[in-house]
Here is the input.
Amino acid sequence: MDDFTAALKSRFKAAEKLGWSRLIIRSGPLHNDLGAVQRMRMCCNAMRQLMQAGDRIIEQPAKGDGARVTIEYAIPRKVL
Here is the structure.
């Protein structure tokens, strides 16, 4: 799960440098970008664990985890 957490934090920092106020991340592309194989649940858990006040889940399958989990994160992050 550390790989997913590090990748998410890197994306948060890049979005902050660009001056963005929101960042939308979908689990499928994140999972694929890291070359992960059958680690979707871990990817989704990392995404949810990094949620803070002001973040929101935009989409998720009924079963909870999957390539469609989409979260909108507030930028800048309070604590990384």
Notes: The longest helix spans residues 2-17. The beta strands are 22-26, 56-59, 70-74. The radius of gyration is 12 Å. DSSP finds three helices and three strands in the chain.
